[in-house]
Amino acid sequence: MVLLRARLRRMKTARPSLDIPLSWKPALEAARAGGTLFLIGATDSGKSTLAAVLANEARASGRRVAVVDADMGQSSIGPPACVGMALVEQEIGCLEELSPAAVDFVGASSPVGHLLQAATSVAAMARAAREDGADTLIVDTTGLVSGGIARALKGAKIRLLDPEVVIALQEENEAEHLLVPYRARTRPRVLALPVSKAVRARSREERAANRQRKLGAYLAAGRVVELSWDKAPVENSAWTSGEPLPGHMCAYAEECVACEVLHAERRADGVFLIVRGQPEPVGLRKLAGSFGGTARAVEAASLANLLVGLLGARGETVALGILEVVDYRRRCTTVYTPLEEIEAVKGVRLGAIQLARDGTQLAAGEPGVAG
């Protein structure tokens, strides 16, 4: 966490005047009582403002308070594509004033397609907050409130965190379907609050520009470093998990898929390839049969400029970076990152966003694109 604190820089913002409607009084009482408060609300419903209000109220009551920011698309604590955690040491006007104590890399700006990582990242940051001595936790979630994906994600987070209170901000009843399962229970207690009239909606373009600005600011002090696959293997991909195929087997694989094979490795469940070009589906099936399992091919272009999380000895996120060059012969990658203590990196987690160094999004990959 110390390494991460050294790399993340707060965005300077003017302190706003917090709008506290009278109808939020039950939530303020819950904050004074402490425990875990889990916030739900659609995009631009004022969840971040409510989180700051509750954090101030809990801290003023003598609580040791932490905020977990799970909105990786519009992060207030730490860079986008991450779940961030910060301790609240003094009164704040907004979450952006907080310095992140830790972040956990999800790798996408939306939880859709990344539900497992989004949920486990929230749990990891809640655990980090408690390890830092927090007895009150305010959890600010994404604006995803519609449909089955929202029910699955919010339900998983609630089960993982076991909050004392779930607080929903609603214009009408858009989040009610998320609250119904808990209405008859003694825990969590459910509070439904109206959206503040002071909330200002932001356009899709504004939100994208905000992500670009924050990622660009985070990466501004970057430098190019080299990581060995053996010392820093990939966590969430078949890549680096198997044994390299010998030359004649690579040639056979190349013949099957009818495109250039840059890297190939065998695993217990089949074979994994990194290729240049579009592999032939028939050839992949033939290759799968030859290796008695599955054959998975990833196009090298999907790895170029990929946002990655750099992991420490306990799997914690110590920094973010951009994967720029892969040397398949030397089994190493070149990463652009603001991290200086590169020897601390013991693993790499692949994201699903391709970025330029200034934070501009070049492309967004499909979930699991890197196998």
What does this structure look like?
The longest helix is centred in the N-terminal third of the chain and has 17 residues, at 115-131. Strand 14 (317-327) and strand 15 (332-337) form a beta hairpin. It contains nine helices and 17 strands. The chain is elongated, with a radius of gyration of 22 Å. The protein has helices at residues 2-7, 25-33, 47-60, 115-131, 147-161, 176-179, 204-219, 247-257, 281-291, and strands at 35-41, 65-69, 82-88, 102-105, 136-140, 165-170, 189-194, 223-228, 243-244, 260-267, 270-276, 294-299, 306-311, 317-327, 332-337, 347-355, 361-364. It has three domains: 2-218, Rossmann fold; 219-235 and 303-364, Elongation Factor Tu (Ef-tu), domain 3 (Beta Barrel); 247-299, no CATH class. With 371 residues, it is an alpha/beta fold. A seven-stranded mixed β-sheet has the order 4-3-2-5-1-6-7, with helices on both faces. Helix 4 packs parallel to helix 5 and helix 8 packs antiparallel against helix 9.
